[in-house]
User: Fold this.
Amino acid sequence: MRVAVIGTGYVGLVSGACFADFGHDVTCVDKDASKIARLKDGHMPIFEPGLEDLVEQNVREERLHFTTDPTEALKSADAVFIAVGTPSRRGDGHADLSYVFAAAEEIADRMQGYTVVVTKSTVPVGTGDEVEARIRKRRPDAEFAVVSNPEFLREGAAINDFKRPDRVVVGGADDPRARKCMEELYRPLFLNETPIVFTERRTSELIKYAANAFLAMKITFINEMADLSEAVGANVQEVARGIGLDNRIGSKFLNAGPGYGGSCFPKDTLALVRTAQEAGAPTRLIEATVKVNDARKKSMAQKIIDAAGGDVAGKTIAVLGLTFKPNTDDMRDAPALDIIPALQAAGATVRAFDPEGVAEARQMLRDVEFAKGPYECVAGADAMTILTEWDQFRALDWKRVKAALNTPLVVDLRNIYRPEEMRERGFTYVSIGRP
Ligand code: UDX
Assistant:
């Protein structure tokens, strides 16, 4: 099948590369000429394990193409994916749909023959109707269907998530031609018996928000249990295991930490709250989740300050990990963006290291010294704190770390070390929700 993908951000690029790898002929289009030029040269705009090889192989085998020209991309495309950004609109938290509608109009002006227009971007309920109306207005006689097909991939595990998803959701493929097209696109998953949920378009749009909101709520729940564990002398990791083994709850997404960040949970929870309020059906649990998570990210700096004896003025804090999670260079809504400025405001000097996030962090943080590795980062510091659980921080040379630190204090906001072992190694060790 011939596929066009509009937008080469996380979702667009990964989807395009994976559809090409499924054997389809895919053209990815983006307005950003320098991004397209770099992609043509094999340079990825994001750090995502496995993506560069996948793109390179599919470009070499001529199934994957990049262009800035939507006319070229849309020429005889059977399916066109809208995978542009839907950022939070400044001020009101609503998703900004201007890129989605611009893409819809671009498609309307260029599509040829029966075309399935698929929204992969996370869009509020009813957006599909609006996309359809806008295309219909420009092309009253065109034959097309507008289908919702939300993407559930996680950064850092994106290719595996795309190729081996728990399910695929397709909304609004009522026309048999559209349904057949979607089945054809996902045929390799069909053969794997991946469940494909065919549903109404509005339901599909809501499924995406409901999934993200539920996961954000699950994380926030365990974070509150972590605070409670600290207050009553329990261990949150064991609480998580003890509840997670109940199949109805499930053990995933129960790692307590400094609060969720990233490009999806903060933006999508906020958008859902706004949509629900306007629909007169407020989602109070999600409203609370948003508030609790924001407050948590802010309170984490105080936890570090308390661990350092209540005062960090004139002290140096070594921060290991800046990105919102490991295996990405993405800093969007990362807890580090709240924690580091608060430490600086309390008078601390911050030295930081991250395996992939430094280039982006430099743009978003002020007066931070960036180290080249973990040992340079801790040298002469008064405390070390873990903000992101990169694998390379899991097995540090503790003798070296201890010798390098002024004070052997480790504040681990991701619970990646064992408290007894850290104490045996001679550290004062503070973690999340564990004695
Ligand atoms: C998320 C959803 O998982 C994905 O399905 C959706 O398509 C996009 O949003 P992503 O933002 O890439 O994916 O990362 P994810 O692994 O879900 O982590 C989000 C945040 O939650 C991170 O800040 C992470 O550190 C935090 N988190 C996750 C926890 O604090 N504890 C957990 O147990 C899991």
